[in-house]
Amino acid sequence: MALLEVRNLEVSFGLRSGAVKALRNINFTLDRGERLGLVGESGAGKSVLGFSILNLIAKPGRITGGEILFEGQNLASMSDRDLRSIRGNRISMIFQDPMMTLNPVLTIGQQMVECLMAHRKISRDNARTIAVQKLKQVQIPSPETRIDQYPHELSGGMRQRVVIAIGLLMDPDIIIADEPTTALDVTIQAEIMELMVELCERNNVALILITHDLGVVSQVTQKAIVMYAGRVIEQGPTREIINDAQHPYTQGLMNALPQMAIPGQRLNQIRGSMPGLQKIPTGCAFNPRCDYVMDICHHQLPGYTASGNCQVACHMVAEMKKSAQASEEV
């Protein structure tokens, strides 16, 4: 049994003009110690999916269909009281901006100790000892001193390490990291990502990394899910997707990487922009931006086609596979 299994997940937001679907028919599994990347532009639904796993969708959003099975328990239908034993304990979340996570008027130690004492029956002294150990794990120098400092006294990279330490406090089974390095410079980004991979491997912790950067995903994750307009459009082994992207959108994301451009020329980009939830095109949502659009793309939602070890939601890929099979039969 997979550690986490998401089945046919749907999330909707109720608006005055009517409900709109932010996530549609999401399916994936995550094994213990496995690293999964969620990729896509802003508005693709990556963060909504991350929040949905912990049932943290704020009103007017709500889970309207499907299951989120964590060790067989459905988190989507679990009560808030039961979820408290899982949030921050069995499943931790690392947010994009550490200053939105850390309380500016409490020391690092106060915040870590309170977190530990909320989930475990231990003394304050023991909680402080564990907090210092976690700060050491994330390579914070002089943790015995840093633990008594306030967030504003630390650099951006140091604050992000503290947030990771808090995420590891309860020895979770899964860490959901929502673009954890966006606010940091490139050198610190690499250090933080390397640290997270090392900690996950050492503690056999599963990681869900939410990002828009396929370059980071290629270096960190084993499986990848590419999302567009609230739907999974390609998923499979990261290496396979990076080396042979099948969906035109995934190909566009790959071509948009700086290293894919010719030096001295403009960077490649996907024309147009992500549609709003109230203006998702009929058929394939990517059809207004696709260079390979066909008539069927305008009126029929593509199903999933197996391509190697990947699943791709694209009419073109399906047609190419049919043609290849017909040629083999001849």
From TrEMBL:
Per the record, what are the reactions this protein catalyses?
a dipeptide(out) + ATP + H2O = a dipeptide(in) + ADP + phosphate + H(+)
* Chief localisation class: membrane
Keyword ATP-binding belongs to the record: yes
What SUPFAM superfamilies does the record point to? P-loop containing nucleoside triphosphate hydrolases (SSF52540)
Lineage, please? Bacteria, Pseudomonadati, Pseudomonadota, Gammaproteobacteria, Oceanospirillales
**What PANTHER family does the record point to?**
DIPEPTIDE TRANSPORT ATP-BINDING PROTEIN DPPD, OLIGOPEPTIDE TRANSPORT ATP-BINDING PROTEIN APPD
Query: What is the designated name of this protein?
Result: ABC-type dipeptide transporter
Provide the Gene Ontology terms for cellular component: plasma membrane
An example of a Gene Ontology BP annotation on this entry?
transmembrane transport
Keywords recorded for this protein, A-Z: ATP-binding, Cell membrane, Membrane, Nucleotide-binding, Transport
Q: Which family would the database say this protein is a member of?
A: Belongs to the ABC transporter superfamily.
Single GO term (MF): ATP binding
Top-rank taxon, per record: Bacteria
Tell me the InterPro entries matching this sequence. AAA+_ATPase (IPR003593), ABC_Ni/Peptide_Import (IPR050388), ABC_transporter-like_ATP-bd (IPR003439), ABC_transporter-like_CS (IPR017871), Oligopep_ABC_C (IPR013563), P-loop_NTPase (IPR027417)
**What EC designation does it have?**
7.4.2.9
ABC transporter domain segment(s): 6-254
Q: What class of enzyme is it?
A: translocase
